[in-house]
Amino acid sequence: MKSPGGEGHLPPSPCVGRAVQENGAFAPSPRARNSGRNLFEGRIVRVRAQSLRFKVTAGTVGILTVAMSVVFALEYHWFYREIVQRLGLSATPLSDVIEGRLKHAVQTRNLSEVDAILRT
After folding, report:
1. What domain range is 93 assigned to?
2. I need a surface site. Which of 1, 45, 56, 92 has the fewest CB within 10 A?
3. What residues in the chain have per-residue pLDDT under 70?
4. d(CA 44, CA 36)
């Protein structure tokens, strides 16, 4: 069979020079055998860390993390102050109600009501 270029031989096969295993499959190329070693040496990580896409992504994630942390901290402190303030405002009327009920129970000498108020 002639190649499209007109010479009398076939184009080189991508499998030329590769060893054939016993089951007929091709053995991995030397480049493929070393790819696992490069991964463990950190070479792949270094290449990724030098790419612009990785740097932009890491920068964006970092900035968003810091911004969200600051917003969360500010909202937490604001909410905490608000809850303490509202609790202080609601505690005074509640204690007045309990005190009034207790005075009434003592004045009427209703010991079961006094006992119920003190248990709660």
Report:
1. 30-119
2. 1
3. 1-49
4. 10
